[in-house]
Amino acid sequence: DVGLKKGLLEIIKNKQLWVVASYGGLIYMCTPVFCGLWGVPFLMNKLAITKAVAANAISLVLIGWAIASPLWGIYTNYIGRRKPSLFWSALGTLITLSSVIYLPISLTQSQILLFFFGLFSAGFLPAFSLAKDMCQARYVATGLSFMNMMNMIGIALAQPIVGMILDKLWTGEMQNGVRIYSLLAYQQALSLLPLGALIALCLIPW
Questions:
Q1: CA distance linking residue 64 with residue 139, whole number of Å
Q2: Alpha carbon of residue 154 to chain centroid
Q3: Chain centroid to CA 81
């Protein structure tokens, strides 16, 4: 289809859209990668808590997302700008996630930080509105699909990379047929997430 090819070409040539989509992919990957697979065993290891308690702590991220998602949109519409929310999202994600991963904090402190991680990481959502604003009206759907694709690529790359780093740092310890990783191994592997947030923060001026 000529129209589809032309639309894709216009999207690929849009440098600003690449920057926004890359930002979105870097920030969004932090939530599903941490909450979906590695967060629970990491918290169990770091805080010496049960799986149920760790899962409840992780759920606070999703509660933060549910609360903050519409509020970030309201905020950006109120001030008439998208960029500030993207800045605060990247900075807040970087600080809260780094604190949970690296600092010697209690369960309660971790729960508070995880909730705020959810609040801040949801602030990337106005990037979709920014992407929409960057596209011609007839290419909006294609542009948003491109944005979604970049989000999924971020997750698809980050999940196995974290696993590969953990396997590389594995000391051979097993429990009930499951590999046991050290706290240091988790911290080094999960460093990929705050690094992504830092790169996203550096993309803001662009």
A1: 32
A2: 9
A3: 22
Listed residue (136, 102, 175) closest to 17, CA to CA: 136
**What string of H, E and C letters represents the secondary structure of the chain?**
CHHHHHHHHHHHCCHHHHHHHHHHHHHHCHHHHHHHHHHHHHHHHHHCCCHHHHHHHHHHHHHHHHHHHHHHHHHHHHHCCCHHHHHHHHHHHHHHHHHHHHCCCCHHHHHHHHHHHHHHHHHHCHHHHHHHHHCCHHHHHHHHHHHHHHHHHHHHHHHHHHHHHHHHHCCCCEECCEECCCHHHHHHHHCHHHHHHHHHHHHCCC
Q: What is the pTM of this model?
A: 0.88
Determine the Cα angle at 160 with ends 154 and 166, to 5°.
125
Q: Tokens in use for 206?
A: 């662009």
Q: What are phi and psi of 80, to 5 degrees?
A: 75, 20
- Tens of pLDDT, residue by residue over 118-151, are 999 998 888 877 777 777 777 777 777 778 888 8
Token pair belonging to 22? 């890359």
